[in-house]
């Protein structure tokens, strides 16, 4: 991972995702999610909620929104995660379930070891959202 | 080859409350690692998949409402729920100080760090206390009479830091499909043992023992740097994301 | 974009007057104070004069001032110095839960070495519980260490009352010794040691517009201490090492200047502080002030904003040129939130969502108005992005 010199606390990519986060769910009331998941707890200092919309035919994630209570790295991690699962037509559920925090950290251009848990939490919230969707699908049948 | 069945990973209902467990036994593994054996106050240990972890928290206000995740080192068939804990920080120190008979809260099992039956050729990369989930998986697969081929690369600073050295070597002797390679990063080469390496785990060592990196399923568990490094190594050498699972201890 | 620095409690710039006084010792007057020739004696004189200046402000004797390299070093010297010197007389130490880490970590290390330590609670407004203190004192207590003013929430402890309690308790005995960390109090509160009733006092140059790497420990000559750093006989054998006259002169000149400006600056800053707090509480919902409103350093503002996390708030404000700090866990090495805020008894989430603003010599009302304009929408946006619904 190339470390770019920056006057900022984290990498430039993290800065971009922190200052201009992508896919934030500003308006919860009008969003009909196919699956929802939440991870973390306020005592430990980070909580993330992830909402997904799934294309029924090809089982790909077509939309992913989120909210985060947490530090700069936490916000950037969830933002990057939401981009990764929806870009290029969207990830299949299977691939998304195996999305690793390492992949998120690599896309972010690196995170200090102390902040690694932020990317882990994001992935946990995503997994819960996917499992929530799968459970709902099972009930429908 | 990816399975064509829809992937369903069952996690226990999040709304289930943590169960109360009592500490029944304490076993010293190394100078800073203890195995703690717990029993639920009511009924039997819940069922879980080997490789999963639980969230542990204390009753009193010791450490507030904080909880920490620990991989289960026992098998689903075992009588006790076992956690093998390395003393690193405040929380693990408190666990080390637990007395027999004291209670803790343990959540239902979480995580999906376990191999599917379809994964025939398994490679486990463990460092230090990262052996815990693998210990559970390896024993369970052996007890089930699994047909999987298993190679464990276990990295530690010196052989004094190896957790479960006898149990693992006994298993390797009994089970021909299971091979262990010990990686000792801070020990001088003191023997010409095959299956012992005296430098940090790298792609050369992996290729030496695995011959071909393809068509294998890799599971990596240990501290952040170890997991990230090896993940990078595997990816750089052509292993696809689908064939790698990681669990970081931090 | 204008840079608005509001983290004076972390460190300060070196005042130009102080820098001027330091310059000769960084250039031509480079002598070693222990040398016999004139260049050496020049350095020695500078150091002696510096000590006299410091002693005058503290209203004590120059030989009771030990020059050190930081506030942390002074605190370590006080605590380990007294503990080791008097360990045959007792093994009990009392500190407050909101001491600076330099004091707390020293106390924890003493515990590992067999000493017993009582960590006093504070009430919900950040003041030490005097009744609890009275109960904790016992025959084996050899040291009490309570900070004069806290660096995070700015609360001022009742030092002279604590000293009185100790005097009444110990009667004719020498022990326990009473140490106070006054790093944040310098420049805002009186440092007259006899009035305060302290036997040891820690000061730090980097908080009072002096150079970093400078500090001192006042030690009443009745007490002996074991040095931390041994070698040459500098500082009466209590702190070995070739002295740095530039830093020492910088420290004493900074302290002189701070004392000269103290009354006026304190008043000015107090007004600015109160102005900011009043407006912030009015314009931002779910916001609270941490610590006592009156018994507080004139320049300290510590607020908690429910629903958001401190580091993200600090980073956002940084984008607008505003420099502040937070007590959030995300910014600490062990991922635990500020021990001071936790000791106040506030919920962990509020500790995570805390912001500390500390004003200083260059702070003007215009700066605060700018912050008051920027802060509410930034807080609101972070709240909209947050998982916590208020």
Give a description of the structure.
- Chain A is α+β, with helices and mostly antiparallel strands and 141 residues long.
- Chain A has helices at 12-19, 72-86, 93-97, 101-107, 116-140; strands spanning 35-41, 46-55, 60-69.
- In chain A, 43% of the residues lie in helices and 19% in strands.
- In chain A, strands 1-2-3 form a three-stranded antiparallel sheet.
- In chain A, strand 2 (46-55) and strand 3 form a beta hairpin.
- Chain A is globular, with a radius of gyration of 15 Å.
- By secondary structure, chain B is an alpha/beta fold.
- In chain B, 21% of the residues lie in helices and 31% in strands.
- Chain B has five helices and twelve strands.
- In chain B, the strands form two sheets. In chain B, strands 4-3-6-1-2-5 form a six-stranded antiparallel sheet, with helices on one face. Chain B has a six-stranded parallel sheet with strand order 10-9-8-7-11-12, with helices on both faces.
- Chain C has 390 residues and is α/β, with parallel strands linked by helices.
- Chain C has a seven-stranded mixed sheet, with helices on both faces. In chain C, strands 9-10-12 form a three-stranded antiparallel sheet.
- The chains are: A alpha+beta (141), B alpha/beta (250), C alpha/beta (390).
- The A-B interface holds A 1, 41, 43-44, 59, 93-95, 97-98, 100-103, 105-106, 113, 116-117, 120, 127-128, 131, 134, 138 and B 2, 6-9, 11, 14, 64-67, 112, 224-225, 227-228, 231-232, 241-242, 244-246, 248, 250.
Topology readout:
The complex is a heterotrimer of chains A (141), B (250) and C (390).
Chain A lengths: L11 H8 L15 E7 L4 E10 L4 E10 L2 H15 L6 H5 L3 H7 L8 H25 L1
Antiparallel strand pairs in A: 1-2, 2-3
Chain B lengths: L18 E12 L2 E8 L12 E5 L9 E5 L9 E6 L3 H7 L6 E4 L14 E7 L3 H14 L4 E8 L8 H10 L3 E7 L11 E2 L5 H8 L6 E7 H13 L7 E6 L1
Parallel strand pairs in B: 7-8, 7-11, 8-9, 9-10, 11-12
Antiparallel strand pairs in B: 1-2, 1-6, 2-5, 3-4, 3-6
Chain C lengths: L3 E2 L10 H11 L11 H21 L6 E4 L2 H15 L6 E5 L4 H12 L3 E5 L9 H7 L4 E5 L13 H12 L6 E5 L11 H4 L3 E5 L10 E5 L25 H39 L3 E3 L10 E6 L4 H10 L2 E2 L15 H5 L4 H5 L1 E5 L6 H21 L5
Parallel strand pairs in C: 1-11, 3-4, 3-5, 5-6, 6-7
Antiparallel strand pairs in C: 2-8, 7-8, 9-10, 10-12
Number of helices of chain B: 5
Strand content of chain C: 5-15%
Order of helices and strands of chain B: EEEEEHEEHEHEEHEHE
Estimate percent helicity of chain B.
Answer: 10-25%
Which strand order does the major sheet of chain C show?
A: 2-8-7-6-5-3-4
Rounded Rg of chain C: 22 Å
The fraction of residues in strands of chain B falls at 25-35%
What's the mean pLDDT score of chain C? 95
Report how far the terminal alpha carbons of chain C are from each other: 34 Å
Quick one: how many beta strands of chain C? Answer: 12
Q: What is the mean predicted local confidence, pLDDT of chain B?
A: 89
Strand numbers in spatial order across the main sheet of chain B:
4-3-6-1-2-5
Residues in helix, % of chain C: 40-55%
User: What kind of oligomer do you see?
Assistant: heterotrimer
Individual helix count of chain C: 12
Unreliable stretches of chain C, pLDDT < 50, 5 or more residues?
Answer: none
Instruction: Classify the secondary structure makeup of chain B into a structural class.
Output: alpha/beta
| Biggest sheet architecture of chain B | 6 strands, antiparallel
The poorly predicted ranges of chain B are: 1-16
**Rg of chain B, please?**
18 Å
């Amino acid at each position: 991972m190339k470390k770019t010199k920056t006057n900022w606390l984290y990498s430039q990519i993290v800065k971009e995702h922190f200052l201009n986060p992508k896919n934030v769910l500003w308006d919860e009331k009008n969003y009909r999610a196919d699956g929802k998941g939440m991870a973390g707890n306020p005592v430990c200092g980070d909580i993330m909620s992830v909402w997904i919309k799934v294309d029924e035919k090809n089982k790909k994630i077509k939309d992913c929104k989120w909210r985060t209570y947490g530090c700069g790295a936490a916000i950037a991690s969830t933002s990057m995660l939401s981009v990764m699962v929806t870009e290029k037509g969207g990830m299949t559920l299977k691939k998304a379930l195996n999305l690793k925090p390492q992949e998120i950290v690599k896309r972010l251009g690196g995170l200090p070891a102390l902040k690694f848990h932020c990317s882990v939490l994001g992935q946990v919230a995503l997994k819960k959202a996917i499992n929530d969707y799968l459970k709902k699908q099972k009930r429908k049948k | 080859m990816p399975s064509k069945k829809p992937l369903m990973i069952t996690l226990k209902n999040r709304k289930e409350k943590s169960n109360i467990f009592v500490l029944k036994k304490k076993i010293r593994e190394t100078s800073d690692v203890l195995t703690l054996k717990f029993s639920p106050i009511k009924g039997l240990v819940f069922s879980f998949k080997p490789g999963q972890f639980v969230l542990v928290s204390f009753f009193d206000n010791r450490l507030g409402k904080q909880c920490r995740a620990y991989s289960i080192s026992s098998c689903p068939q075992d009588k006790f729920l076992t956690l093998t804990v390395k003393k690193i920080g405040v929380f693990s120190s408190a666990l080390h100080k637990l007395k027999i008979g004291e209670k803790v809260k343990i959540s239902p099992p979480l995580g999906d760090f376990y191999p599917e039956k379809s994964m025939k050729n398994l490679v486990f990369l463990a460092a230090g206390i990262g052996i815990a989930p693998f210990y559970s998986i390896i024993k369970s697969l052996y007890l089930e009479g699994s047909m999987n081929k298993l190679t464990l690369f276990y990295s530690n600073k010196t052989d004094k830091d190896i957790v479960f050295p006898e149990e693992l070597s006994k298993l390797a002797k009994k089970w021909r499909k299971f091979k262990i390679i010990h990686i000792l990063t801070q020990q001088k080469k003191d023997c010409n043992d095959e299956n012992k390496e005296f430098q940090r785990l790298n792609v050369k060592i992996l290729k030496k023992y695995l011959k071909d990196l393809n068509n294998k399923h890799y599971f990596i568990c240990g501290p952040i740097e170890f997991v990230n490094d090896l993940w990078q190594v595997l990816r750089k050498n052509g292993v696809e994301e689908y064939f790698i699972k990681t669990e970081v201890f931090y | 974009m204008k840079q608005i620095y509001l983290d004076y409690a972390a460190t300060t710039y070196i005042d130009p007057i102080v820098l001027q006084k330091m310059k000769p010792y960084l250039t031509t007057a480079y002598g070693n104070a222990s040398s016999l020739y004139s260049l050496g004696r020049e350095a020695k004189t500078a150091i002696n004069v510096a000590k006299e200046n410091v002693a005058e402000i503290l209203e004590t004797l120059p030989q009771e001032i030990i020059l050190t390299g930081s506030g942390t070093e002074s605190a370590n010297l006080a605590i380990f110095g007294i503990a080791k010197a008097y360990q045959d007389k007792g093994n009990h130490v009392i500190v407050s839960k909101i001491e600076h880490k330099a004091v707390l970590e020293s106390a924890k290390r003493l515990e590992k070495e067999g000493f017993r330590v009582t960590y006093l609670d504070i009430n919900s407004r950040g003041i030490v519980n005097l009744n609890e203190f009275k109960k904790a004192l016992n025959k084996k207590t050899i040291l009490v260490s309570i900070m004069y003013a806290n660096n995070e929430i700015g609360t001022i402890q009742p030092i002279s009352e604590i000293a009185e309690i100790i005097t009444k308790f110990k009667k004719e005995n020498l022990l326990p010794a009473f140490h106070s960390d006054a790093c944040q109090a310098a420049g805002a509160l009186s440092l007259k040691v006899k009035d305060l009733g302290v036997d040891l006092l820690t000061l730090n140059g980097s908080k009072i517009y002096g150079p970093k790497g400078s500090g001192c420990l006042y030690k009443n000559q009745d007490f002996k201490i074991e040095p931390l750093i041994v070698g040459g006989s500098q500082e009466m054998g209590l702190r070995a090492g070739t002295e740095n006259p530039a830093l020492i002169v910088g420290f004493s000149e900074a302290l002189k200047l701070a004392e000269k400006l103290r009354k006026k600056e304190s008043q000015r800053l107090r007004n600015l502080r109160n102005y900011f707090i009043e407006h912030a509480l009015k314009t931002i919902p779910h916001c609270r002030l941490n610590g006592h409103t009156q018994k507080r350093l004139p320049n300290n503002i510590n607020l908690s904003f429910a629903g958001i996390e401190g580091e993200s708030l600090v980073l956002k404000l940084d984008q607008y040129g505003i420099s502040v700090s937070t007590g959030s866990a995300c910014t600490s090495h062990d991922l635990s939130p500020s021990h001071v805020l936790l000791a106040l008894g506030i919920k962990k989430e509020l500790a995570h969502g805390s912001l500390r603003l500390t004003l200083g010599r260059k702070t003007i009302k215009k700066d605060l108005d700018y912050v008051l304009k920027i802060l509410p929408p930034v807080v609101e946006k972070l709240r909209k992005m947050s998982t916590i619904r208020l």
